[in-house]
Amino acid sequence: MTAEPGRQRSSPASMSAGPGPRRSLPPRLLDPILALAERVDTRRRGIRPIRADGVLAIERTRWRGADVRLDDGTLVGHGDRIGEMHFRSERARSVGRRGWQSAGLREGRADLRALAAWAAAQPTALRPVAYHGLTIHAAFPRREGWQVRARERTFWARLDACTRRRG
After folding, report:
1. Structure letter (DSSP) for residue 41
2. Residues facing residue 83 across a β-bridge
């Protein structure tokens, strides 16, 4: 088969290439909506910064999952008090502009030291049994000695991961 002048030949490979790479992020149009939803959710759930200028926040809640035995032997039972860890997106963005690797790790470590001091000052009955968080940044907690487990790949987990990538 020969190509006519001015026309390109099409090959089976170019015809089956498909529509292009799949997007894993929501469109930019959703940014203001996602930011508003985050502010409302933060207020509704009582999520408070660990430090005023830190990158981490905590929500005092109860474990709703099945009983879990941690690597250190601690048993976290259904209904036990836990601290749910959260990234403060607006602070993480500003720290990222200063150089995420060094500034982010420094801020995160300062938050964890403040959290440890806060937990030590709590009465035993009010102290969380464990701290839990969901993140796409698993290298930081793993480096700091946290137990990291893979999350089940459900519809809600994929939706949550999609919004977290926007951070």
Report:
1. H
2. 60, 131
> What secondary structure letter does DSSP report for 50?
S
Quote the tokens at residue 3: 């190509």
The tokens of 127 are what?
């102290």
pLDDT, tens digit, 9 for 90 and up, residues 2-58: 334 444 444 344 444 445 555 556 677 888 888 898 889 889 999 999 999 888 999
pTM, entire model: 0.67
Beta-strand pair 48-49/56-62 = antiparallel
d(CA 78, CA 87): 24
Whether the Cβ atoms of residue 148 and residue 142 lie closer than 8 Å to each other: yes
Contact between 86 and 98 under an 8 Å Cβ cutoff? The reply is no
CB neighbourhood size of 31 (10 A):
11
For tokens 């209904």, the residue is 79
Residue matched to tokens 């200063």: 98
Q: Under 8 Å CB-to-CB from 105, ≥6 apart: which residues?
A: 140
CB 81 within 8 A of CB 128: yes
